[in-house]
Write a structure and sequence with these properties.
alpha/beta; D-Maltodextrin-Binding Protein, domain 2; 2 domains; 11-stranded mixed β-sheet; 44% helix; globular; Ferric-bd; Putative 2-aminoethylphosphonate ABC transporter substrate-binding protein
């Protein structure tokens, strides 16, 4: 008679081993801290950043909540007494300055702050946000469509008000897009407020559509739907690298620049805040910046450079007063813009 004991013992051991493995795996999963991260970064960047971050910090799991700059800023202000996000990663410094004024940010300065360019650091106490990378506003100019229509290459911002461009321009909506608000602020600072609104009245006649995001105007220009999309440098160079007949225009009379930054959200549980601090430390480091260099040209770290040809926007002077002015005047500027131009579809 053949004994079944050895086989039974082997099966029992396999069952026990599987149970132990499941226990340890479930324990490892439970040990991961899930943090909710609000971001206005471009969608194609998120999976790459998540994979790298979770590889380097394996006990942290990222849940992205992506939206436009305007939407996320409004949401964070509304949620400041009952916050949902643990961390902001990839939001304009104008919005971060406003959120700081609204007491929505928890003060935190990463250890690597001293290794970052001074322009990328919160200029006022208590230190609450840190810049990651910068971008410049400009125009995506479809050279093929312009040639077919006999349109001259714009040299100055005021050239965009030329009636020859009637219905051939796309621009981001300032209420939903940080790029759109930056454009309005740039024109006011370059021309003076009265002259800037006069310019925008003339430009309005040429705008076919106000888009909900800052990259959409450039995408439309790259597809040939518009001759010109007022947008930002990274998107123009990305579309050009993919074969679109796009030229990045940086007007001779000056360009505005802005930072994508990060900050802790105030009022979150201690475990969440601790994990979010580690993410900020990671994002301030060299390895993260080498990743960001794939998407941006001007980085907070001077010891990491981009392989692409980007304008060095950090070399243009922007004072702390300029940042505070935009944050302080955001609601007034948006209300005035809506009053004048809200009839255009998005």
């Amino acid at each position: 008679m053949t004994s079944l004991a050895p086989e039974s013992e082997s099966m029992a051991w396999r069952t026990c081993r599987a149970a132990l493995l499941l226990f340890f795996l479930s324990g490892a999963a439970e040990a991961r801290t899930l943090i909710t991260v609000y971001t206005a970064a471009e969608a194609e960047h998120l999976a790459v950043v998540k994979q790298a971050l979770e590889t380097d910090i394996p006990d942290v799991e990222i849940r992205w909540v992506r939206g436009s700059t305007g939407h996320l800023t409004t949401r964070l202000v509304a949620e400041r007494n009952a916050p949902v996000a643990d961390l902001i990663l990839g939001l304009s410094s104008q919005s971060l300055a406003l959120l700081k004024e609204q007491k929505a940010l928890e003060p935190f300065r990463p250890q690597a702050a001293d290794q970052l360019r001074a322009e990328f650091l919160d200029p006022t106490e208590p230190y609450s946000w840190t810049g990651i990378a910068a971008f410049a506003v400009g125009a995506c100019f479809n050279t093929e469509r312009a040639s077919l229509l006999g349109l001259a290459r714009p040299r100055y911002w005021r050239d965009l008000a030329d009636p020859a461009y009637r219905g051939r321009i796309a621009m981001p909506h300032p209420a939903s897009s940080g790029v759109g608000l930056l454009l309005v602020a740039t024109w006011i600072q370059l021309m003076g407020e009265d002259e800037a609104w006069i310019f925008m009245e003339e430009l309005h006649k040429n705008v076919a559509v106000y888009t909900g995001s800052g990259d959409a105007p450039c995408i439309q220009a790259a597809r040939g739907e518009r001759v010109l999309g007022v947008s930002f440098d990274m998107r123009a160079l990305r579309e050009k690298s993919q074969g679109a007949p796009i030229e990045l225009l940086l007007p001779d009379d000056g360009v505005g620049w802005e930072m994508s930054g990060m900050a802790l959200v105030a009022g979150r549980p201690a475990a969440k805040s601790e994990a979010a601090r580690r993410v900020i430390e990671w994002a301030s480091g060299q390895s993260a910046h080498r990743l960001f260099a794939r998407f941006f040209g001007t980085l907070a770290r001077s010891d990491v450079s981009s392989p692409r040809e980007y304008p060095l926007v950090h070399q243009q002077v922007r004072s702390p007063d300029s940042l505070r002015w935009v944050a302080a005047n955001r609601e007034r500027l948006l209300a005035e813009w809506e009053r004048r131009f809200s009839s255009r579809p998005q």
